[in-house]
Design brief:
Distance between the termini: 144 Å
Order of helices and strands: EEEEEEEEEEEEEEEH
CATH superfamily of the largest domain: Immunoglobulins
Radius of gyration: 36 Å
CATH class of the largest domain: Mainly Beta
Structural class: mainly beta
Length: 203
């Protein structure tokens, strides 16, 4: 008689334990392939991934050396390594002026992520940081998507307030260039002296 019971295999993913339930029969043997080159024949194995990635775990169960059960699980060993993903924005963003924005990744392991910024009018910029000029004022939506090997793992949508550009004060008279005014005064004096000399010579 075959007795079946449920138990949990623990896959240690960079310090995070994930339980995957399946059925155990007393006369079965097991073969695990963790997708990173490591295998196990234990009933209830523990495994720790050394490198962040997405892995396919394959479980095969054999009854009297014949395949009785086969199942694959996808294991995410990337997201648990991310502690935080923070956007760096200036306190004030003004319409029509260049604004520097960037993202700061805090992770347990060194992750090589790609970033896609989506701005108004569906403008897309790739990279960890970007220089952008917002043409319209008011509340503006931007989106940041982080990718690991072309696979999206994080998406943030942010609403920022863009301040209206300040118009120049037209009531303030333009400042005169001191150098040019001084030069004009010099030439006026020189012209008057010339006229006086002409009058003296005529007499």
């Amino acid at each position: 008689m075959t007795m079946k019971r449920n138990f949990c295999t623990r896959l240690v993913l960079l310090g995070t334990i994930v339980c995957t339930p399946y059925t155990l029969a007393e006369n079965l043997t097991y073969q695990w392939d963790f997708g990173d080159g490591n295998t196990s024949t234990e009933d209830n194995p523990n495994h720790q991934y050394a490198t962040p990635d997405f892995y396919t775990v394959t479980l095969k169960a054999f009854a009297d050396k014949s395949l009785s059960y086969s199942k694959q699980y996808e294991v995410d060993a990337v997201t648990p390594a991310i502690k935080s993903l923070t956007l760096n924005l200036p306190e004030q963003i003004e319409q029509g002026k260049s604004t520097h924005i960037s993202v700061n990744l805090n992770s347990t392991y060194d992750l090589n992520l790609d970033y896609k910024w989506t701005f108004p009018n569906n403008k897309v910029v790739m990279g960890k940081s970007s220089e952008v000029v917002f043409q319209d004022s008011g509340d503006t939506q931007i989106a940041l998507t982080a990718y690991f090997k072309d696979r999206p793992i994080s998406e943030q949508n942010i609403t920022i307030n863009v301040l209206a550009a300040q118009e120049p004060d037209k009531t303030t008279p333009p400042k005169q260039d001191e150098g040019s005014s001084g030069g004009s005064f010099f030439w006026i004096n020189l012209l008057l002296i010339g006229l006086l000399r002409i009058r003296v010579s005529v007499k």
